[in-house]
Amino acid sequence: MTKTPERYPRRLPTRTVYVGDVPLGGAHPIRIQSMTVSTPEQVHQTVREIEALAHAGCELVRVTVPQRRAAECLKDVKAELNRRHCRVPLIADVHFAPSAAYIAARYVEKVRINPGNFQDRKTLQGPQREWTDQEWNEAIARIADRLRPLLQICREYGTALRIGVNHGSLSDRILWRWGDTPEGMVESAWEFIRICQEENFHQVVLSMKASNPLVMIDAYRLLVLRMKQEGTLYPLHIGVTEAGNQLEGRIKSAIGIGTLLAEGIGDTIRVSLAEDPVHEVPVAWHLRRLAEQGMLQGVVSEFLGRTDLVSAKAGNGSVLVPYVIVRCRRGEGYPRQPQPDFCAVEEGGRLILKDVRGRRYTVGSLHKPGAFICLTWQDSVPDRLPANLTNAPDVYWIVEGNPEWPAYQWEAWIHDLVERSLPLARTIIRVRLGGNGYYLGVALAARFARLFLSGVGGLWLESPESTATECATIAFQFLQGLRRRIESVEYIACPSCGRTQFHLEEVVAAIRARTQHLKGIKIAIMGCIVNGLGEMADADYGYVGSGPGRVHLYRGRQLVRKNVPEEEAVDALIALIKEDGRWEEPPPLTRH
C-alpha cells in the first residue's frame, strides 16, 4: 500500500486578536457571526436584531455603516445594548466613507473596511486607463493617509480591524493590473496589511469573499501562502458571499467553508443567506461542530481539492459530467424532477441500477466491461486491490467507505486509488448519511466537496430519512455549487443589510417562482451596487437595487434597463430572458 498522505492541521496557528472580550484565532474556538438587516439609525430595530442573533448563538454581530450619521448612531445602539445586558461584540461594516470608520471605531469592537472602495476608485465600468508607477505609488500613499488615522483610533480604543476583500468590489486600479482574480484579491488586501505593519498595528483579521465558492477557496489558499511567505498568520474570517437562499445557499456556503476548514483555514465564519439572518446561525454552528469533531480534516495531496480539475476530460476532449444515483425504495417511482441518471433498486435480494428508460445494469464485484463494480471497505483500503482489476473504458467503480469516517480517511482512500491508476472520472462515491433536507445537504457539501473538486465521476447519495427525489435534489445542488454539473438556475443573491434597496427575501422568492424551471443560467439578485456588479460578474442576468423602489437590469455586465420601477422589474427580467431566446415555458402541472 502506498504511503498515507499527511493531514492538514486542525487549525492554522494564527495570532490571537481580541474583538472586545472575545479572543479570535490561535487555539480559540471558531467564532460564529452574522449581520443585521437594519441600519444603526433604526436604533431599537437594530438592537432587537442583535439580541435575536445573540440568542441564536452569534458570538459577533456586524452592522452596516454606510455613512457618518449611521456611525454616530452606534453610540446609541451600544448604550441600549448595555442597558439590556447584551454584551455581544459589534462590528461596523464600512465601505465608501473612511470618516464613518473613524467614528465607528470609537463605539464598536471591530471595524470592517473594504479595500476595493475604502479609498480607491470603483466605477461601474471597471478599469478605463493604464497606471504609471508614479500614479500607482501615489494611490498607495493616499490609502495610507486615510488608513493611518483609523489605525491610531483603533489602537487608542482597543478596536480590531477586518480587512475584508470582496471579489465583486476590487478597485479599478487592482483590476487593471491583476484582473478580477484571486491574485488580485490577495494583492488588494496586502497593500493594506503592509500599511498596518508599518504602523506596528496587528489587531487585524482578513477575509477573501466571493459568491463563487471556487474563487473564494482559491483566494484564501493564496492568502495563506502569502502570509506564510511573509512570516505572519492573521486570523481569517471565511464565508461565501451572496450564496443565495434555501438549500442552494446552504450548500454553496458549506462547499466553501467546509473545504477551507478541512485545510485548517478559518477562525470565524459567516453563512450568508438571502433570508432572516437568524437562519444563518444554525448552519454555521453545524459546520463548526463538524470541524471540532475532526470530521472535516483533510489530507495534503497534489490533486485533492484542486479547483482546476472540476471538469474531468474524456479521451476525446469532451467534458465528463458526474453521474447522479439515488436509492429508490419499494413503492417509490423514478424521480422526475430532478431526474437522476440511475435509481438503485432491490430485485431478488440484490441491487441493480435502472435508468429512466428502464434499462438495468448490474452492481457487483465482477471485473468485466460494462459493469458497475463495488469496492467497499469499512475500515481501510486493503494492501492489494483485486488481481483481476480492469481499467476498461466502460467500467465504473462504485467506492463506499464507512459513513462515520472523517474526511481524511475518505480522501486518503481515494488518494491511494489514484496512486494505483484507478481513474477518478469513472469513480462513483457512494455516500450514505443520516439526516434530511438542509442538514443532509450541508453535511454532504462540507465533508465531500474536496473529493468532488478533484474530478470524481459520480455521486450515489442515499439517506434513510430522505426520499429518492430529495436525495436527487441535494446531489444536483451539490454538484452545481461545485460547478461540476449545471442542471438548474443558479441564484446569486446577497444577504439583506441596511444598504438593501428592496425586500430581498420577497424578491428572491418571486424571481425563483417564475424562473426555477429554466436550466443552465445564472441570475444575480443584488440589493445594492456595493458589491453587485463584481459578484455577478459571471451571471447571465442581474437584478440590482439602484435606489428606493428602483432596479437596474443587466445582461452580464451590460446595463440594459435603468431605474425600472420595482413593481415592473420581475416582468422586465423575464422579458429580457425571452428576448435572448433563453426562455422555456414551465412544464404543465400533473394531476395525481
Overall description:
This protein is α/β, with parallel strands linked by helices and 592 residues long. It has three domains: 18-292, Alpha-Beta Barrel (TIM Barrel); 307-481; 490-579, 2-Layer Sandwich (Sulfite Reductase Hemoprotein, domain 1). The chain is 35% helix and 19% strand. It is built from 15 helices and 23 strands. The chain has helices at residues 43-56, 68-83, 98-104, 133-157, 172-178, 182-198, 213-230, 246-262, 280-292, 407-419, 437-453, 468-481, 504-515, 532-535, 566-579; strands at 17-19, 22-24, 31-35, 60-64, 90-94, 110-113, 160-166, 204-209, 237-238, 268-269, 323-327, 342-347, 350-354, 360-364, 372-376, 396-400, 427-432, 458-462, 490-493, 522-526, 541-547, 550-555, 558-565. An eight-stranded parallel sheet has the order 8-7-6-5-4-3-10-9. It has an eight-stranded mixed barrel with strand order 11-12-13-14-15-16-17-18. Helix 4 packs across helix 6, helix 6 (182-198) packs parallel to helix 7 (213-230) and helix 11 crosses helix 12. The N and C termini lie far apart (55 Å). Mean pLDDT is 87; it is low at 312-318.
